[in-house]
Amino acid sequence: MLTSSIHNGICWAAESNPGLNRSKNEDYYLIRPDLGLWILCDGMSGHMEGESASWVCAMTIADHVAGNVDLVSSIHHAHWKVWRLTYNKSKTFNQCGTTVAALMIRNHEWQVAWVGDTRVWCWHKKSFYQITQDHTVTRQLMNWGEINAEEARIHPDRHRLTQAVGIGEKTLNVGHAVGKWERDQVFLLATDGLIYWNDPQQLSQILSQADGPEAAVSCLAKASSDFGAKDDFTIIVVGPGHEIHSKPGGVLKKWSHLVSRIPWSRKGSGPEQGRHYRDDIRQS
C-alpha cells in the first residue's frame, strides 16, 4: 500500500511489499515529519524475530532523536536495544538483527546515517549518486581492490553483511554523511529487494521522469513486482514540496499536488500504525 504526504515544504511517498516468496514483510519504515526524519529498516531473514528487530530499531531511533540525541548515537542506542531484545526472547545471542538507513533534514542541512545495506541515493541538478556505502563483504573486497563492481554483482557473498543493528556485542561503525539541503534535491531510500538496485542509470531515469514522489514510488514498486521480486522491498522518495520549473528534459516538474494522508508509519504489509505527527520540524 502506498502512502504519501507533504509537510513543511517537503513531500514524500512510501510503499512496502513482501515480495512473491514471503508470507510476512520484515521491512519497517517510520516517518516523523515533526523531526524531519525518515527511517527505513530491513529485518534480517534467517534471524529470529526480524520483524521485531526492524520495528524496535526504527522506534528507538525516533524516540532518541526526539530527545535531542544525535542521529548516529540514536542508532547506537537502537543497536543495544535490539541486542537485548534477542536475549530477552531466547536467552541466546546473535539471533536478531536489522539494517537501517535514516535521513534527517533540518536547518538547511541533510544527514544520512546507516548500518548494513539499506541504501540512500540523492538526485540533484541532473546528478544521481549513492550516499550510503554498503556494509557488505563485497563492498569491503572492492575497497581493498580485490574485486571490481561487475564481480561484486555476482559474488557468492554479495548479500553477506559485515555488520548489522543488534548483531554481536561490538560497537557499530555507523556510516554517516552530511550535506547542504537544497530545495531541488530528491532522496531515494530503499531495501535490497528493489529492482535496479545496481543500476543507477535506470533509477535516475525513473526519478527524472516522475511527476512527484507518488509517481516515482509507484513506478519503482510496479517494476519490482513485475520483475518478480522474491524479497520484500520498501521504497521511500523524499523531495521538495513545491513545483520545480525546469528546462526541457529537466526533472521532477510537479511536487506540490499531494494532499496530506495518514498514517506516516507502517510495518511492512501489516496493519497501519496509528501514530500521526503534525508538529513543525524542530530546529536543533
Descriptive account of the structure:
With 284 residues, this protein is of the alpha+beta class. It has one domain: Phosphatase 2c, domain 1. Helices cover 26% and strands 26% of the residues. The chain has six helices and twelve strands. The strands form two sheets. It has a six-stranded antiparallel beta sheet, covered by helices on one side. A six-stranded antiparallel beta sheet has the order 9-6-5-4-3-12, covered by helices on one side. Strand 1 and strand 2 form a beta hairpin. Helix 1 packs antiparallel against helix 2 and helix 5 packs across helix 6. The longest helix has 20 residues, at 71-90. The radius of gyration is 18 Å and the shape is globular. The protein starts with a strand and ends in an 18-residue tail after the last strand. The model is unreliable at 243-284 (pLDDT under 50).
